[in-house]
Amino acid sequence: MRSYEEAEQAAIFEWAEYEKRKYPELELLYHVPNGGKRDAKTAAILKRCGVKAGVPDLVLPVARCGYHGLYIELKVGKNRTSSNQKKWLKSLNAQGYKAVVCYGFNEATNMILRYLEGEIEHE
Fold first, then answer.
1. How far apart are CA 91 and CA 4, in angstroms?
2. What tens digit of pLDDT does each residue of 52-111 get?
């Protein structure tokens, strides 16, 4: 399942590269590489360096709609959010960010566009 998610995420960044002409803010979109399988030694090093389980996959540090920025936890297929991911989303929303789960390329790119266009209601 992870490879489908990676393919969707790569497609989002290809889309963002194209859309930067209209939305230059997409230059700031980045991926948080917290996921994936790692050996125990590498995992321990990354944890010591600040990697935290549950941090959303995509970050757009652009203020819109009364939010400080947009965080997206990307899911594909029947994949669901973990308890750590739910905790991060709730905490980020409480801190003034728009933090959401999006299923696949279409939902994620639509959310990004709506956010950049100011079409998201502040909760």
1. 27
2. 889 999 999 999 999 999 999 999 988 899 999 999 999 999 999 999 999 999 999 999
Give the separation between CA 14 and CA 58, rounded to whole angstroms. Answer: 14
For residues 59 and 67, the answer to whether their CB atoms sit within 8 Å is no
The predicted model scores a pTM of 0.91
Query: Distance between CA atoms of 76 and 3, rounded to whole angstroms?
Result: 10
Coil vs helix vs strand at 15:
helix
Taking alpha carbons only, the member of 42, 20, 39 closest to residue 29 is 20
How far is Cα 54 from Cα 66, in angstroms, rounded to an integer? 24
- The pLDDT assigned to 82 comes to 93
Amino acid (one-letter) located at 82: S
